[in-house]
Description:
It is built from 10 helices and no strands. By secondary structure, the protein is mainly α. Helix 5 packs across helix 8 and helix 7 packs antiparallel against helix 8. The longest helix is centred in the N-terminal third of the chain and has 17 residues. The protein is elongated, with a radius of gyration of 30 Å. About 7% of the residues have low confidence.
Amino acid sequence: MVIIxxxxxxxxxxxxxxxxxxxEQQTEQVQQPARTSHPALASKRxxxxxxxxxxxxxxxxxxxxxxxxxxxxxxxxxKVLQDHDSIPLRQVLKGAFDPNIEWLLPKGDVPxxxxxxxxxxxxxxxxxxxxxxxxxTKGGDNTLSQNKREMTFVQxxxxxxxxxxxxxxxxxxxxxxxxxxxxxANLVKEAFNWNDSFMKx
Length: 201
């Protein structure tokens, strides 16, 4: 704070002192870093981004499927898929519904040990494993023996959380709609603007 003393006629009584104090104050302000709040705290979107950043992994595909199942009507089911749209999700759902994709795995139940580790801890996630699903489809990798293919699939299931493993088995058996209400091929095509060949229009 600069102290200014005035003469009875209103003029500054200590101009040199005022000048010196002003210069000292300006120097202090330059030396002190400006205190700013976190930029993300400025908006609702920023707050949401911070909240999402605190989450270890994005929503599991089994969680997305459960949300679709629980949504009351088709518009809400569509919104769930569109809100969680990603390349891995599209890859998995194409495998679940596209009749041209043939899985080279036995139909029905798979003999594996479910991973009961708590969510977000010691397991892989399907959104990261999606890029390896070609190993289990016709024309994907012809160098793999059937025995090796099935063993690799079991290992993948045992790495995923129990919920995502169940979802993947439903995908491979093309039974997603049986397990999750209203999760149909038509819903997926509409959500992602796909044609009957499950390609973008």
